[in-house]
Amino acid sequence: MPCPAPIGIFDSGVGGLSVMQKIRELLPYEDLIYFADSAYCPYGVRPPETVHYRTSALCDFMISQGVKLIVVACNTASSASLNKLRQIYNIPIVGMEPALKPAAKITNNKKVGILATGVTIAGERFHSLIGRYANGIKVVSQPCPGLVELVEEGEVEGKRAEEMLKMYLSSLINENVDTIVLGCTHYPFLRPLIESIVGDQVKVIDTGEAVARRVTQVLMENDLNTPGTIAGSEKFYTTADPGKVYKVIKRLWNREITVKKAPV
To answer: Is 184 annotated in the active site?
Structure first.
C-alpha cells in the first residue's frame, strides 16, 4: 500500500541539499527530513570507522522519526559505510557514488577528472567503479581539502573559493580532461564557479539527479509512494549550532526554513 511516511536524507553537512533539491523536483508530494551532521563535518578527514559510527547514529535517528527510506547523501559516507548500513538496517538505503559511469560514456578524449574527498578516492567503492567503468579511460583523481568547509560557510563564490578551485582544477586542466565528475555532494554548489574556470569545452557532471531517480524507483518497487496532491514538507536537523546552520541552509535551499538541533 502507498506509504505517507517521510524520506530521510543525511550528509556530513549541508552538501546533501544538492541531492535533496533533485529529490524534491522529482517527488513533490513526499515529506523530507534532512540531517546535517555539521558538528562532525567534514567526514573526509575522519577515519572510516568514525564515519560509520556517525552514519549509524544518523540512521537510528531517521528510523526514530519513522522514515520509510534513507538517502546517504554523502559520497564519503557511502564509500566508508553504505554496505555495512545495509547489513544492519531493514529499510531501503540509497547511497552515492561518483558519476564515473556516465562520464566514461560522454568523454570524447577518454580523459576524466574526479573532484572528491580523500576518503572517497581511497575507498574500495571508488576503485571498484574505476575497474568496472573506466576501461580505456584515464581517470585523474583530485582530492580537495577545504572545499567542503567553504560550502559549509555558505561561501560558494568569491575570491577565496575561486583561488582554491583553480589550485585543484589545475591538475585536471593540465591533463586535458574533457569531463569532470563532482564526487562530493557539496561541490555542485560550486559548479558555476568550476564551469567558469574550466570553460565550455569541459563537461561537468554530478550524481544528484541519478540518485533522485533511484529513490523514485525504490519507492515504486516497494510501493512506498505518498499518494495525494499536497506539496510535501521539509524538516531540517543538525548536530551543530542551528542558528549558524540555518543561515547556510536557507541560502542554499532558497526558502524559509526551521532548523532544530538533535542530540545524535
So the answer is: yes
